[in-house]
Amino acid sequence: MDHDREHELDQLMDRASAAVLRSLDATVDVKQRLQELFRRAGVDPELAPKSGSR
Asked: Which secondary-structure segment (H or E) carries 12?
């Protein structure tokens, strides 16, 4: 494999990894905010209905 192609693949992997991390961060942020809303509403977040298992 030539050097330019290898560099392109490295960049692609870096961008894909960064996108996955951003997605995971967003998922965790949403779950934390939802738990806080349940607490404010007086509902134990552990007893709240679970949505999809992502």
From this structure: helix 3-40
DSSP label of 48: S
CA distance 20 to 39: 29
The span from the CA of 14 to the CA of 22, in Å, is 12
Q: Are 39 and 48 in contact (CB under 8 A)?
A: no
Model pTM above 0.85:
no
Q: Which residue has the higher pLDDT, 49 or 4?
A: 4
Nearest to 31 by CA among 12, 53, 4, 13: 53
